[in-house]
């Protein structure tokens, strides 16, 4: 019973603009990011996320023994 009431409330809020809409304006990029820069950033991101996880998974048996 509360779900339809919440749904009606949300729909009403959107209809009456109680939730303000964002005024977004886009411009061309000031600096074009090259493919090399993207590759370096993606590699660093993946190393930062997957490196520690891989280390833990590779040494899982060592952690179980302690």
TrEMBL record:
Pathway terms, separated by semicolons? Energy metabolism; oxidative phosphorylation
Q: Where in the cell is it found?
A: Mitochondrion inner membrane
Q: How does it sit in the membrane?
A: Single-pass membrane protein
Write down any Gene Ontology CC term.
Answer: respiratory chain complex IV
State the signal peptide span.
Answer: none
Which keywords has UniProt assigned to this entry? Membrane, Mitochondrion, Mitochondrion inner membrane, Transit peptide, Transmembrane, Transmembrane helix
Keyword Transcription regulation carried by entry: no
Q: Kindly give the Gene3D superfamilies that the UniProt entry links to this protein.
A: Cytochrome c oxidase, subunit 8
One Gene Ontology BP term is: mitochondrial electron transport, cytochrome c to oxygen
List where the protein spans the membrane. 39-58
Q: Which SUPFAM superfamilies match?
A: Mitochondrial cytochrome c oxidase subunit VIIIb (aka IX)
The family assignment reads:
Belongs to the cytochrome c oxidase VIII family.
Q: Which protein, by its recorded name, is this?
A: Uncharacterized protein
């Amino acid at each position: 019973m509360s779900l339809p009431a919440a749904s009606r409330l949300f729909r009403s809020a959107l209809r009456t603009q109680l939730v303000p809409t964002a005024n977004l304006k886009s411009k061309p990029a000031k600096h074009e990011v090259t493919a090399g820069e993207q590759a370096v950033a993606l590699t660093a991101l993946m190393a930062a996320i997957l490196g520690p996880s891989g280390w833990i998974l590779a040494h899982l048996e060592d952690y179980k023994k302690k």
